[in-house]
User: Fold this.
Amino acid sequence: MAKSANQKAKILYLLELFQEETDEGHPLTRKELESRLADIGIHAERKSIYNDIETLKNFGLDIVYRKERPEGYYLASRNFELPELKLLVDAVLASRFITQKKSDVLIRKIEKLASRHEAGMLQRQVVVADRIKAMNESIYYNVDQLHLAIAMNRQVLFQYFEWMVSKQIRLKKGGGNYRISPWALTWDNENYYLIGYDMDAERIKHFRVDRMLHIELIDQPRAGREAFGKFDLARYAKKTFGMFGGSEVTVRIRFHNKYVGAVIDRFGRDVALRPDGEEHFIARAEVAVSEQFFGWITGLGRDVEILSPESVVEEYQKLLRDLTEKYNKR
Assistant:
């Protein structure tokens, strides 16, 4: 009975051999295929091997016979090319919101999309100095639950925490639940965020997914459809620095020409730019004014100047005065 069952599964084991063991540099001859099948208790005649290979080719597998050395059959193409798999591995390693444990699991799964020989080439480290990984192992569960809530048009309840100096977490709202109508998930500033309609505040808010605890779907349809219908997620991400909210205003900023790339990276190619002399240009963009926005401006140095509105200029001047006073006290 066991032999008969193995014979029925022979073509599946052959498929597995092609996927896991072969590539252009590592083909297997017909005799090697027979030997590998024999190792797992499957007797295969020469004619049946040829027939099974033809069946797999007719099924859509790109199995090629190589005449020159190394000689043999190999799987010539896969759903993902090796450079694509390398990009996926790099993205997983560089993503802060994926914990180290989950990163290792994901990479092992990605390796299975390549041959055993090529998988060794995926064991690579992205140069990301002292990369800090998320510590909330429930991130996968959270993302799955939120996608499910969006698909089912349901509200969610969850607790939300922040970190304390003691490195312990503290629940916000005194441990009370947030009741949110989830509308979108976005990846910004190396973190996953939920964009949703806060039922209590009656406005759109965003929440870091890795700081959400005990997500529960409730039997209530989502609210805020009208508000979110006018919501432009891409525009929201461009104007919100580090996902820190603030009053939204249209600002005019004067930059040296060397910063045009940084401005387009930040605001997109549709940002309004006009030359201002030979070495400068003025950008006009809508931003959520916050200390994170001012930090971005300061980080670009002396060749950047906020021109308007005056209220934002004064707010920035006050921040700079406060910082100067703080350090003058030293």
